[in-house]
Amino acid sequence: MLTVAGAAAVVLALVVGLIVWIGTTSSSNPTTGAGATPSANPAASSAAFPPLPEGADPALGKKPAVSAGTGTITALKTTTLIEGAGAEVQSGQTIDVNYVGVTYADGKEFDSSWSRSETFNFALGTGGVIKGWDQGLLGAKVGSRVQLDIPADLAYGESPAGGQPAGALRFVVDVLAAS
Fold first, then answer.
1. C-alpha span between 68 and 77 (Å, rounded)
2. How many Cβ atoms from other residues are within 10 Å of residue 39's Cβ?
3. DSSP letters of 38-86?
4. Any idea what the Cα angle at residue 154 is, between residues 51 and 89, rounded to 5°?
5. In which region does residue 92 sit, left (phi positive, over 0), alpha (psi from -120 to 50) or beta (all else)?
6. Fewer Cβ within 10 Å of end Cβ, the chain: N or C?
7. How large is the average pLDDT for residues 133-139?
8. CATH class of 51-178
9. What residues does each domain of the chain span?
C-alpha cells in the first residue's frame, strides 16, 4: 500500500521528468519538429548555401536587403537586378529559388528562404504559388536576381486568411535552377 509521502515522491519525480523533457525538446528547430536536425544528410549540411548555378554572380550568395516601395502598385512590375547567364525559365518547369518577401508599404520582412537556409522549389505557371510569382518569374534567366512588385490582387489580397500579409508585396527572388 502506497503512503501519502510515497505518492508525493512519485508525483514529484514525474513533474521533474516532464520539466527536463520539455527543456530538451523546446530548443529544437520548430520547422523540423522536436528533436530533429535541419538536415539528416551530412553531405547536405556541409554543402554551401545557397547552391549557386555555375558562373553565377557571387552577389547571389548573400541575402539581399529589401526595402519598402514608394507609391501605389496597381500592376505587376518585374525588375531584373542581376541578369543571369542561364536559360529562360518556362511555364511548367520546376524552379529552385531563394527569396525575401516584404510588405510593399513598410518593408517589413514576412518570409525568407534565407532564414531557413534552404531554397524553395515549385512548378512555375501551375498555380502552386501566388499569381505574381507565376507571372513575374516567367522568362527570368537562371542565375538572375529579380525584384517583383506585386499588387494585392496578384498576391494574397487585401484581407487574407491564415496569417498571410495583406496588400501589395515586394519580393526579391534569385532563380538558381530550372528543370
1. 14
2. 14
3. S-S-HHHHHS-SS-PPTT--GGGGSPPP-----S---S-EEEEEE--SS
4. 35
5. left
6. N
7. 97
8. alpha beta
9. 4-35, 51-178
Query: Which residues share a beta bridge with 122?
Result: 95
DSSP collapsed to 3 states, 92-121: CCEEEEEEEEEECCCCCEEEECHHHCCCEE
State the cell numbers at 56. Answer: 553565377
- Which residues 6+ apart lie within 8 Å of 97 measured at CB? 113, 119, 120, 121, 122, 137, 173, 174, 175, 176
CB atoms within 10 A of CB 76: 17
| pLDDT tens profile 1-19 | 445 444 444 333 433 333 3
Phi, psi (degrees; rounded to nearest 5) at 52: -90, 145
Find, among 91, 79, 90, 70, the residue nearest to 148 by Cα: 79
